[in-house]
Design brief:
The complex is a heterodimer of chains A (about 400) and B (about 270). Chain A is an all-alpha fold and about 400 residues long. Chain A has 17 helices and two strands. By secondary structure, chain B is of the alpha/beta class. Chain B starts with 7 loop residues before the first strand and ends in a 6-residue tail after the last helix. Classes of the chains: A mainly alpha (about 400), B alpha/beta (about 270).
Chain lengths: ~400, ~270
Amino acid sequence: MAAESFVKNLKKSAVAALWLSFLTMPIMVIRVDTVEKTIAWRWMHLVWMLVGSFVFALAWHFLMDRRDRGGAATDANVEPTPSRFAVWLANPRVNRPLMALGLLFATAFPFLFSVYQTNILISALIYVVLGLGLNITVGLAGLLDLGYVAFYAVGAYAYALLNHHFHLGFWAVLPVGGILGAFFGILLGFPVLRLRGDYLAIVTLGFGEIVRLVLQNWDAFSFGPSGVSNIDRPGFFGITYSVDQATTYIYYLALLGVLLAIFVSGRLKDSRVGRAWLALREDEIACQAMGIDNTKAKLLAFAMGATFAGFMGVVFAAKTTYINPASFTFMESAMILAIVVLGGMGSIPGVILGAFLLMLLPEYMRAFSQYRMLLFGATMILVMVFRPQGLIRARRKIYKVNINTVDKA
Amino acid sequence: MSETRRDAVLSVRNMSMNFGGLRALSEVDFEVRKGEVVALIGPNGAGKTTFFNCITGIYAPTEGEVLATARDGKTRRINGMRTNLVCELGMARTFQNIRLFASMTALENVMIGRHCRTREGLFGAIFRGPGTRREEQEVVDKSYRLLQKVGLENVANEYASNLPYGAQRRLEIARALATEPFLLLLDEPAAGMNPQETLELKEMVIQIRHEFDVSVLLIEHDMKMVMSLSDRIYVMEYGRVIATGTPAEVSADPEVIRAYLGEESDA
């Protein structure tokens, strides 16, 4: 059986390789030199093309076969049994020390590595929080929001402008950023209450662009494309410190933000509110027929996700000390959405992993920066084909039933 | 029809529903009394599910009145009331094409039903104080007990999508019961079940009515089940109620026989 399918795969791959080589021959093999008026036939390229595409096709078929043999695992509607690795990782005796180790490493990071590295990690941490925020809206409540960066911009501009005009400090504006984020979340939520799926995505996309364009064009309010500069770094009981120290300080703020975000979204996920969001995602009509107020649940999901972004916007403005509308393009929204989808919708460890992968890999693979978008696209395709649920699949909590009270009844 | 009887939990008067030019329901009078099992039968497309959707707030009826008497004894007009408020009032339904929350466990599906009977909010969820924890535990325990009632306690932590068909049907009933209804609306609960499962379902409905003190309104095509289970039957055809009465009366009604078996073309 296995040998048979292998021979079949060999044949398929050979055909694919031949076809591809034939199709790409004009550009890969023939080179016309218009100055010298000569034609160079680079036959070696054809060989490379043949071998390369053959190996690639074989690997692809092998992986596809393996995926299909997994059977149920590919069907999005059937929940597969967790792998042995996942079970091992879920054991508290394993993951508790691992988490402690990770936290220890994160705490010591600014002292072990350079300011440059710390700065990179701050960006990654900010994106972890943004990912966790969007995870509430998209992952839990299933409301596809393509304009999420607007709330981030609201937080950032809230700090930048209040600081510029009224010299308000970081700590005074931080809650304002969060509240403004929530307010804008509800503002977006109201008109889209009746929309779902593609329509919702389009409206949220438009909302994100509106916010960016307003910031870009309303010179009197937001200083237009030139942005706001000389934003104060966060204060610490009036102590002045160097840029390096400020970086370390912001690093710890971002870390604290991540821990808080993990805590809050973890608690929400398995609560009455979180379950209502999940029900909303799974089946809107049944959800409402079971007594859940859809309107309230939706607005709450938008507001909660936006609050995270509002807070992080303030942190971002304080970190860079300079912001302009170019930092809040649709690309950022797409990136955050990619973090959530790649990591695993609704899965907190998944989103964290996704954020680190998508933020850190491009930084540390600058050698391949030419191919960044190519690699990015290829990764997304591979993940969607082989792990449509994301890198780490969300799992539901197993509730402890209090047997005694059950028996008594 | 005569005046609403005092023990009616649901009475529908002269209700019509138009979709544009199509009259899906026309002047329907309907009544469910306390503790009754009432069946609504009729050929496909007669408007049975539309009727369900009208009384549960998914559609707002074009004309007529829907009155519900909740456990508190007050009678309310519920035409066009929001679906979740109808459910909160105490009318819980199941769906013809099963609508469970697929990626949630069986227990969680039932816990969703408890949503409108609990109050924990955002801050309670984040800080998880003693009040919240007590309420959570109560929700879990009550939901588990309901799973026991429908015989699904062994698969409490299975995802709903992994359950076999019959179990999914029973899970829907458990989820509806979790909302503490006074009226349970079952839309074709026996569809796709084999005779053995149908028999078990029937036993379960009888037991539930007794134990939870609910009235039951069901749409069903399985005549054996309808005839042996229901106290009264309404027969619909083309959006009208063509016959009402006990199973014996209805099965002898010439109109009903005509609707189901067709008219003789030539006498």
